[in-house]
Amino acid sequence: MPGAATTTAVGAEAARRRTFAVISHPDAGKSTITEALALHARVIGEAGAVHGKAGRRGVVSDWMAMEQQRGISITSAVLQFAYRDLVVNLLDTPGHADFSEDTYRVLTAVDCAVMLLDAAKGLEPQTLKLFEVCRARRIPVITFINKWDRPGREPLALLDEIEQRINLRPTPITWPVGTAGHFHGVVDRRTGEMTAFQRTPGGATAAVEEQLTPAEAAHRYGGDWQRAVEELDLLGLTGADHDQDTFMAATTTPVLFGAAVANFGVRQLLEVLASHAPAPQPRVDTGGTPRGVDAPFAGFVFKIQANMNKAHRDQVAFVRVCSGRFSRGMTVTHAGTGRPFATKYAQQMFGASRETIDEAYPGDVIGLVNATALGIGDTLHDGPAVAFPPLPSFTPEHFAVLRAADISTFKRFRRGVEQLDAEGVVQVLRSDRRGDQAPVLAAVGPMQFEVAVARLDAEFGVPTQLEHLPYREARRTDAASQERLLGVPDAEVLTRLRDGALLALFTSGWRMRSIADSRPGVTLEPLLAAD
Ligand code: GDP
């Protein structure tokens, strides 16, 4: 039966997808491990698994050059490569200055996350923020402790920090032999075998790995091996072994040790992704019904990239495929409006260049160009109507009052602000005290403000001015608490346009706690709740 065969084929394609993001603090080594993962994929690829598409494109950028050399597909939002018989989609989580609500939203489109820690620093602020999103969404997390080639902290102390601070139980898959800075390799806890590493010059190629039996390792590494064995015994006693159910429930995390810069431990990470990370699962629709991966095509928009160049203004909507087979040119339905949406310009983004794609499967990401009708969280589907729940709003940490430079542009100003809010560029807050002419913009990262101001100018012809506010903390509150907080210094309550939520803003966590302590009955809830 052809129908059944097609269904099975989509299911099989979904089963070989692994879609994940790296959560880390700037400088932990995200770019380095991304390259290292791709490098390993190429190495496998040379053995015949990857069919390089080099030569078909003319534009050369860093990404492009990397793609051509390594036979992998890279987009500005997604790196796609083949590993063995898997298709791996690594979604980018922009950090540094471009850390924004988009960075959090990427985590709505992955099935798993790799938490990358610097061995000398452990859990850092940006990692913690991203981890909270994973926790709220119950995304399974694999931990990679990086930079083991440099002096760092004790492995047991790092595990302890993970367990104590974020209540995630570490279950090491590998264990380092040699202290941080004097790294000899890792023991695979499941087999007891040691993989010894030799740094290759500049880390330019995959690390040279050598398998050693426990006896050989003991002979070669003496005291360091002995110490690793003692630590492993300790771990064995505490029962810190990988358990697939608790990993999938996001209460335990498999841990690997390595040095991305020298490609140490990167192959093991790919192996863990292959054997433990989940393939795309059925996604629950707004009615609460899980939609199987082999149902007709459906996906949702998790990121919109607007081109701010006036001469070439378009908008790319990035869609995570949740079910079915996507083929370029198919006409799908925009669930919000019921209107048809033509996909002949479906593309993958390649650095500065773009290439059309012909098909995609659950777990993959497609870029739809000129998608001005689409907003963040919108569902696209084929066949009978389906809609996925809207994406959550994330906790903003930056606030600014926005005003039109010229009052005569107010109508356009209001339309523009509503549009940016609907697209999820910024969150828009209002209060009676400030009025509609001075909405407060709220953002996860300050670059969201720049994008908002530039787009109001370019698309709505409204020059605007921003006045930054000193607030840093936001909590959900209620009308009774709003009364109580009226006139309190260092605090203000506003209404979020998008969902009507009341947000209490405070200048610092410390002020927030002291205000709450002196006013019993004021309700302050975290904004990010598990759905
Ligand atoms: P990102 O900001 O997380 O993308 O970090 P990068 O990948 O740019 O790495 C930041 C710095 O750490 C760079 O200088 C890297 O060469 C270095 N780095 C990354 N991984 C390792 C590692 O395993 N060992 C050492 N010693 N340095 C590393």
Automatic annotation (TrEMBL):
Major localization listed first in the record, in broad terms: cytoplasm
Superkingdom classification of source: Bacteria
Annotated compartments: Cytoplasm
Keywords (A to Z) from UniProt: Cytoplasm, GTP-binding, Nucleotide-binding, Protein biosynthesis
CDD domains documented for this protein: RF3
Residues in Tr-type G domain copies: 15-281
Binding site for GTP: 92-96
Job of this protein: Increases the formation of ribosomal termination complexes and stimulates activities of RF-1 and RF-2. It binds guanine nucleotides and has strong preference for UGA stop codons. It may interact directly with the ribosome. The stimulation of RF-1 and RF-2 is significantly reduced by GTP and GDP, but not by GMP.
Family: Belongs to the TRAFAC class translation factor GTPase superfamily. Classic translation factor GTPase family. PrfC subfamily.
Protein name (record): Peptide chain release factor 3
Taxonomic source organism: Micromonospora zhanjiangensis
